[in-house]
Amino acid sequence: MKTKIYVTAILLLGVMGLGNAQAQNQECMTNLSIYVEHAKVKNYEAAYTPWKMVYETCPDINKANFIYGERILKDKIEKSSGADKDGYIKDLVALYDNSSKYYPKKYTPAVVGIDKALLMYENKMGSDTEIYDMLQKAFDEDPGNFKNPRALYLY
């Protein structure tokens, strides 16, 4: 009798957990749709909040999280200053790092390293040596994908 109660309780908890995951996934899909529509018309300010929710909750749901996320954060960096700008830059660096974690075929070590180095160079963060070292590491890890003309010129 006790075994039946335990099995029933475990099954009930499992079903409840599954329902919560589906609800969360539905919320992610809804917010994904919202921010993609805003981002398509370059309304990055309105796209930021739903994008942030999707990126933090379910980053691997779609590559759009990283494609549009980069555009949204670059817009935020361009339109902000001071501590806010530094925060958005850190968010963008984290986005680059996570992009290779979730989609390693599209975001190779060279692509991620180049993006991070160019971001630092464009925002005057880091010395020439640090930027060179980042580009050198990207080249050493993935020379076949080290093709960005700006990175080659800077390197």
Please give a structural write-up:
It comes from marine sediment metagenome. This is Outer membrane lipoprotein BamD-like domain-containing protein. The chain has 155 residues and is mostly helical. The chain has helices at residues 2-40, 44-57, 64-79, 82-102, 109-122, 128-141, 149-154. It is globular. The termini are far apart. Residues 11-22 have low confidence and may be disordered.
Care to give the gist of this entry?
This protein is an all-alpha fold and 155 residues long.
Topology:
Layout: H1 2-40, H2 44-57, H3 64-79, H4 82-102, H5 109-122, H6 128-141, H7 149-154
Helical segment tally? 7
The low-pLDDT segments are 11-22
- How many beta strands in the DSSP annotation? 0
Helix/strand structural class: mainly alpha
**Number of folding domains?**
1
Task: Provide the CATH topology.
Answer: Serine Threonine Protein Phosphatase 5, Tetratricopeptide repeat
CATH class: Mainly Alpha
- Cα distance, first to last residue? 72 Å
Average pLDDT over all residues = 83
Instruction: Give the name of the CATH superfamily.
Output: Tetratricopeptide repeat domain
Q: Helix and strand string, N-terminal first?
A: HHHHHHH
Strand content: under 5%
Helix fraction by DSSP (H/I, runs of at least 4): over 70%
Q: What does the radius of gyration come to?
A: 20 Å
| Overall geometric form | globular
Specify the biggest β-sheet: none
Protein name: Outer membrane lipoprotein BamD-like domain-containing protein
Organism: marine sediment metagenome
